[in-house]
Design goal:
Two copies of one chain form a homodimer. Chain A has 321 residues and is α+β, with helices and mostly antiparallel strands. Chain A is 33% helix and 27% strand. Chain A folds into two domains: 64-126, Dna Ligase, domain 1, CATH 3.30.1490.20; 132-318, D-amino Acid Aminotransferase, Chain A, domain 1 (2-Layer Sandwich), CATH 3.30.470.20. Chain A has helices at residues 2-8, 22-30, 39-46, 48-57, 74-81, 105-118, 171-187, 221-224, 229-237, 271-275, 305-318, and strands spanning 65-68, 85-89, 99-102, 122-126, 132-140, 145-147, 151-156, 159-165, 192-201, 204-211, 251-258, 263-264, 279-283, 288-289, 294-302. In chain A, the strands form three sheets. In chain A, strands 5, 6, 7, 8, 9, 10, 11, 13 and 15 form a nine-stranded antiparallel beta sheet that branches.
Chain lengths: 321, 321
Amino acid sequence: EILKSFSDSCDIITLENEFVDHNRLKFIENLGKKVVPSSNTIALIQDKLLQKRTLASNNIPVADFHSVASKNDYKTTSKKLGKRFILKSRKMGYDGYGNFLVKNQNDFEIGVQKLTARHSEIFAEKFVDFDCELAIMVLRTSREIKSYPVVETIQKNHICHTVIAPARVSHSLIKKVKEIAIESVIAVDGYGIFGIELFKQGNKIFVNEMAPRPHNSGHYTIDACVTSQFENHIRAVLNLPLGSTKMLKPFAVMINLLGKKNDSGIVEDYNKALKNENIHLHIYGKKQSRIGRKMGHITLTGNNLDELLKEGIKTEKQIII
Amino acid sequence: EILKSFSDSCDIITLENEFVDHNRLKFIENLGKKVVPSSNTIALIQDKLLQKRTLASNNIPVADFHSVASKNDYKTTSKKLGKRFILKSRKMGYDGYGNFLVKNQNDFEIGVQKLTARHSEIFAEKFVDFDCELAIMVLRTSREIKSYPVVETIQKNHICHTVIAPARVSHSLIKKVKEIAIESVIAVDGYGIFGIELFKQGNKIFVNEMAPRPHNSGHYTIDACVTSQFENHIRAVLNLPLGSTKMLKPFAVMINLLGKKNDSGIVEDYNKALKNENIHLHIYGKKQSRIGRKMGHITLTGNNLDELLKEGIKTEKQIII
């Protein structure tokens, strides 16, 4: 009844995250309401093991993975993936929550216990010793597929910390990443906007995971591109012509403002950031700060990447939140 | 009681328009709450006769004006202002509402009757046969005064229709306009953001009127400047460092989308606009369209002004709202 009345009040439905059970979305679709991305796409993404299987079966490069049923599965898992691998919750994981690095049988048993206590099902994925992580936003309507620039992402404690646009990799690799990302969206029959995270290891690319929504690695588009990921999300959902994904300046750097204390969400010492015309300050207005929590971000745009990075790192240190 | 409870719920108060009675704002200030712009500034602006007197007494060039008490005042008024002048409501006028052009005694009597029926008090202002109209947004905090580029505004039926940024006038005139605009803000002891409209007649400049808020002539800043007038409004109200007012591309054209029918506010035929990456489409979501009502706007940015104007005019014709 709640879903029905919600659905009746909407013209079209999209998602802020991939954690809504796909069966509920299917129920809404069966009422005759359009959901973008569809329940089918969400089903293929929200279960990370199913996501990996879908990508692999479409010949999209992913790290080797293996289903894990219990803590007795160490031998078969390590035989397939090697000694270093990651245990992952199949559902509800984000920002490293739901991941557990395994180096030996003892780790494995602790990890299985820890993750299955919170989440019913898990799987294991080979540890990729990557040179760097890349990401790209892809847009798709019934008439167009379009992507934003490939970016470099730097994580700290599994949380996206810095995004550099465009990525400092070769043209041929950029082309490869774009092709793989677009194939990934097609593989899940995706319409709307998608953030695809990838590992680069030499000339090899592996899809790490995909998100069926605007993504932290695309926040830079608000200030750095002709059309932001949020406007293009809505355009894509409404099947309207997509806006230009070009950058306004040669380079952009986005740095997340992660909570530095467990306290109220009040921001301090941001005046220097406001004074710098290359810096765009975004504060999310969360009422509580927690160490490591995403409280805002800064985007720097300009012609000299080294300067932007230096300025950005300095500014991130100054702002207390 | 209502004002008190409203005031208690706010940290600081600003205005969307200049039509809130300044006495109410004074009441809120007396409760100890900060209002930006202040009740005093609003008092000097919301009564257009008082505004003109304040500007004139600060040696800011304005068209000659004359107080009008009744329809018996034609002789004294026309003696001072000449045969062509405008009757204006002292309060609540906007977009030409509350204005009446007078060419003879008969017009005068009709005008006085018409305007005083709606509004208690009126005055008269000399008709300025201008070459073009200019406008500029000025920002002021306790530490900074800053302005956006001087723009050209083209009105249709007293409603702002097209804005061209920057204005196609000489550097010396730009400088003059900026000085006059800043003096105008200081004259009303203004803090916050102000839109100042001016007439250009040869090398002469007259302040037409000022608005103590973001202004239609500043809408182009959303897409065309480093910081939009809306962000800078909030920065100024909070006495924060002001954002850069520089343009991102050499030229911008803003064209209002005025209602073309009396109907629902549903927009049609905007796909071509969305396909053009120089065009930024803004729809206000008003539920009802009315002929001439401001329903949205488009902003075009780029390197070639003539092309932007041509493209803009074509696009405005295409969109049905």
